[in-house]
Amino acid sequence: MLELREIDAGYGRAQVLRSLSLSVAPGEILCLLGRNGAGKTTTMKAIMGLLPLMSGTVWLDGQQVNSLPAHDVPRAGIGYVPQGRRLFSGLSVSQNLEIGMMTRGSDRTVREEVLDLFPRLRERLDQPAQTLSGGEQQMLATARALCLRPKALLLDEPTEGLQPSMIEAIRQVIVRMRAAGVAILLVEQRVDAVLSVADRVAFIENGQNGETMSAEALRADHSIVDRYMGV
Q1: Neighbours of 227 (CB within 10 A)
Q2: How much is the pLDDT for 67?
Q3: In terms of Cα–Cα distance, which of 230, 162, 152 is closest to 191?
Q4: Low-confidence ranges of the chain (pLDDT < 70)
Q5: pLDDT reported for residue 164
Q6: Which of 89, 166, 177, 202 could form a Cys-Cys staple with 212, CB 3.0–4.6 A?
Q7: Can you list the positions of beta strands (E) in 48-130?
Q8: What does the DSSP 8-state code read for residue 129?
Q9: Which 3 state secondary structure label does DSSP give 34?
Q10: Nearest of 41, 147, 49, 55 to residue 94 by alpha carbon
């Protein structure tokens, strides 16, 4: 289980997160929803150690990971697909995947399993990442994270700017990872896409916990979305 216990975090003296607590069970998709600037991406960075916590703790399967150096957080089993993908653009598809595999010492079997999820990447292994389409780059960023064999997977706006066919391909992979027992924390602005895959939805407002509920309950009462996401 991935668990955040009353974390505070921010940038310099600017505090963004205030006593934020979340938990994601193995084989569950928790979607984090909120307005722009609510603290969603900050939450992801805090989990990954890219922002030091002011207080609170982050746990993965009983291990406190916020005490680890940032480069050791992926080695603990947390995969991260950041907004904007952050690929090594001058390296090939294959080389980007190799970097993911080296993080936790994954073998070639893992690489083949990941390429089976993204057959389009198998056709482009020698192609520089910067020459891929936006959707293919998102596939590569996700595939690289999966090469870690993650226990938990963080995805920040994975469908942003993608055409419908690419969105569906990413969605199918996320669902398969859930079936494999991965704990998934998903930040997504497209509420319709969220409700089709999420098990629970947690709202964040001004860096603090809002309501957390089942996706089924949210489908039954859409006014809650309007309250947290409306202008």
Answers
A1: 12
A2: 93
A3: 230
A4: 85, 230-231
A5: 84
A6: 202
A7: 53-60, 63-64, 78-81
A8: G
A9: coil
A10: 147
Token output for 110: 């893992």
Dihedral pair phi/psi, residue 64, rounded to 5°: -80, 110
Phi and psi of 88, rounded to 5°?
Answer: -85, 90
pLDDT given for residue 231 in this prediction:
56
pLDDT at 91: 92
Measured distance CA(204)–CA(200) in Å, rounded: 13
How many Å is the maximal CA-CA distance in the chain? 48
Q: How many residues does the chain have?
A: 231
Distance, CA of 79 to CA of 66 (rounded, Å): 15
Q: How far is CA 18 from CA 43, 49, 212, in A?
A: 10, 17, 16
- Residues 23 and 118: their CA atoms lie apart, in Å, by 29
Q: What would the two tokens of residue 214 be?
A: 């089942």
Asked if 207 contacts 20 with a C-beta cutoff of 8 angstroms, the reply is yes
- Two tokens, residue 34: 């909120």
CATH superfamily, with its number, for domain 2-229: P-loop containing nucleotide triphosphate hydrolases (3.40.50.300)
- Give CA–CA dist 78/72, Å, rounded: 10
SS (H, E, C) 170-199: HHHHHHHHHHCCCEEEEECCCHHHHHHHCC
Position 64: which residue type? Answer: Q
Give the end-to-end CA distance of the chain in Å, rounded to a whole number: 34
Give pLDDT, residue 53. Answer: 96
**What φ, ψ does residue 205 adopt, rounded to 5°?**
-140, 120
